[in-house]
Design goal:
The protein has 241 residues and is α/β, with parallel strands linked by helices. The chain folds into two domains: 164 residues, Rossmann fold (3-Layer(aba) Sandwich); 69 residues, no CATH class. It has nine helices and ten strands. Strands 6-7-8-3-9-10 form a six-stranded mixed sheet, sandwiched between helices. The longest helix is centred in the C-terminal third of the chain and has 16 residues. InterPro entries: AAA+_ATPase, ABC_transporter-like_ATP-bd, ABC_Transporter_VariousFunc, P-loop_NTPase. Keywords: ATP-binding, Nucleotide-binding, Transport. Pfam families: ABC_tran. One of its GO terms (molecular function) is ATP hydrolysis activity.
């Protein structure tokens, strides 16, 4: 579960990137976080993950306040950033093993998890190569593997499908569904609204730091008395903001 209560963040003391945000993402749900560029999505995600501090409000990950106990909170989630260009000089296996070290995953368990993840993402033959030799999609996959190797309860994914080939994209969406169906939480941002419409249990649309809508896609259609696609409703909702 992810809980945000009264969360705000301003830059330069003037522009409020996130404005008094209240949001609850319960267990057992794939939650899509949608918004145009500059809407406050990345700022919100960086506050949830503890990369930046909010000016006001409280953020809890599975009941743990990330400001009061950041180590405990960060042990509970895995975070895929919007850029996979990390630790480029390491080999793929070195990077995933490094992530397993950080989270204290035992050797036998990590070996099993790395093999399982590598098979699902077709990365077994690439683990011995340096990350800088990888394509963008392969870098994305190795970052995802590093995030998932400690089997976090909460997944926080910022544009995770970017650069993935169709098979790997399908695999990740399948894994997201499995994770939510096992009673855990998946929070992800995406610009691909067709994916959000098909995959998400609920979505929130943010613009100029405020939540314009939060709920299921059928609830959105009912609210706006429309049978249009999520993409059409999103564009209509954000065009005048």
């Amino acid at each position: 579960m992810i809980e945000l209560n009264g969360v705000s963040k301003s830059y330069n003391g003037i522009r409020r990137a996130v404005d008094n945000l209240d949001l609850t993402i319960p267990d057992g749900e794939i939650f899509g976080f949608l918004g145009p560029n500059g809407a406050g999505k990345t700022t919100t995600i960086k506050m949830i993950t503890g990369i930046i501090k909010p000016d006001a409000g409280q953020i809890r990950i599975n009941g743990t306040d990330i400001a009061a106990d950041p180590i405990k909170a960060k042990q509970r989630f895995g975070y895929v950033p919007d850029s996979p260009d990390l630790f480029l000089r390491l080999k793929g296996l070195e990077y995933v093993s490094f992530m397993a070290d950080i989270y204290g995953v035992e050797q036998e368990l990590r070996n099993s998890r790395i093999e399982t993840l590598a098979k699902r993402f077709d990365m077994l033959d690439a683990l011995g190569d340096t990350i800088q030799s990888y394509s963008h999609g392969m870098r994305q996959k190795i970052v995802i593997m590093g995030v998932l190797v400690h089997h976090p309860e909460v997944w926080i994914l910022d544009e995770p499908l970017t650069g993935l080939d169709p098979k790997s994209s399908f695999t990740l969406k399948e894994m997201m569904r499995e994770h939510a169906d096992s009673g855990r939480t998946v929070f992800f941002s995406t610009h691909v609204l067709e994916v959000a419409e098909k995959l998400c249990d609920r979505v929130a649309i943010i613009n100029k730091g405020k939540i314009l809508f939060c709920g299921t896609f059928p609830q959105m259609q009912e609210h706006f008395q429309s049978h249009e696609s999520l993409e059409s409703l999103f564009l209509e909702l954000t065009k005048h903001e």
